[in-house]
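Hello Y.,

Per our agreement to keep a running log of every chain we model this quarter, I'm adding this entry. I've kept the format consistent with earlier entries: sequence first, then predicted structure.
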Amino acid sequence: MPPAHETAAALLPLVGGARNVTSVAHCMTRLRLGLADRSLVQDEALRALPAVLGVVEDDTYQIVLGPGTVARVTPEFERLVEQERTARGGATGATTAEELAAHGTALRAAQKARNATPLKLFLRRIANIFVPLIPALIGCGIVAGINGLLTNLVSTGHAPWASSLVPALAAIASGFLSLIAVFVGINTAKEFGGTPVLGGAVAAIIVYAGVANVSAFGQKLAPGQGGVLGALGAALLAVQVEKWCRRRVPEALDVLVTPTVTVLVSGLATLFGLMFLAGEVSTAIGDFANWLLSAGGAFAGFVLGGLFLPLVMLGLHQALIPIHTTLIEQQGYTVLLPILAMAGAGQVGAAVAVLLRLRRNTSIRKTIRSALPAGLLGVGEPLIYGVSLPLGRPFVTACIGGAFGGGFVGMLNQLGDAVGSTAIGPSGWALFPLLKGNTGLAALVTVYAAGLLVGYAAGFLITYFFGLSRQQRAELNVAPEDAAADPAAADPRALVQGDHDKEPATSAGVAP
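Predicted structure for the entry above:
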């Protein structure tokens, strides 16, 4: 038996077994464990193991094994944990909402640690640029929706009193979007360590009407060409130029030279390069999104709706924020968001299924009931980290439910009923006021509502029949007070030994 396997096999029972391990990770020298119950750890016996150099307690329980050793022991330890969980049906050992929440928190912390890669950290910084803009997008989007409704009423003669109000609301709704590039430039410079107003000044070039007199690559530029992507690139360049100047310009001249060089160099590069290139990229993004749904339809929607929750878990959903913003800037709405919002519908359906399956577990049912209103409004974190993710299978079945909802919306998009959103951030029922597309409001509401119903139904049915193994249902479907009075009732090993007619144990497959 390899030494790494021997070490892992010796460690596992001393930390309380697989039931007590909620997350496994490692750094250069330490095996980092998330534990459900710290009191189950046998500290003295653990420290007595020859391979253990020490123990550190922080947000995780850290066992010091040394460089090289930890990299070999960790995969063996993870394999043993998975084997033990598979042998007892993938149960987490949690029977109350508090235990599930602790398990979900540990999984979230472990995932956050894994997300600390250069690419994901960069995506997080990009998200930090656009997330502060969401409140304005939402507010202006709702005003645009109200204005669209009033416009229809005025044109049909049902609201002549609103004829003077329509242009005012149009100005309110469109003013922010017309200058969104400036805000992106300001936030970009702030996020990457430059002077915010210089980032905004360079980005403002993009929306200045006078750029129509400038030619680049043999073509006249258009105001707004390149949009938020051009503003992002221009501000990033401005930050680099500014930092270069700060290191080299004498302090006495810095206040004059640095801003001038930053604006001049970055501005020329924006006019004669970035605006054209970013414009081509922005156009390509819009064309690809339209082609994807018009050609892929149900399949594209199924994939997008099903993968969104895992993308959120991996932190990769942040890459979609500039794409959404670009589509809103170009077309007035993003066709991707309503499809991705179906992931939340699948999550709600899965939660309701768990609620009905675990009729006796008052603790978990209370958590689900309190989190469902937020889930219906598109805030899924309480259900994800409090229920479905720590249980394992319900997270997967929720993703499948979201895939069916996304496939439905994608199919109707392919048939000509494009449903989009004028802002990013909200989902679920909160997205109704922000709907916009190529059809009337009634059709938009009908398509989106039908998609939600499909997501709810699919998430519910798949979770109800496949989301919990028989072993999990037997372990979890007990009242917390009953489990405390009879520990064997919550012990999956006792249940397996006492009932040989149960179906073979299968893994819950906890999602990454």
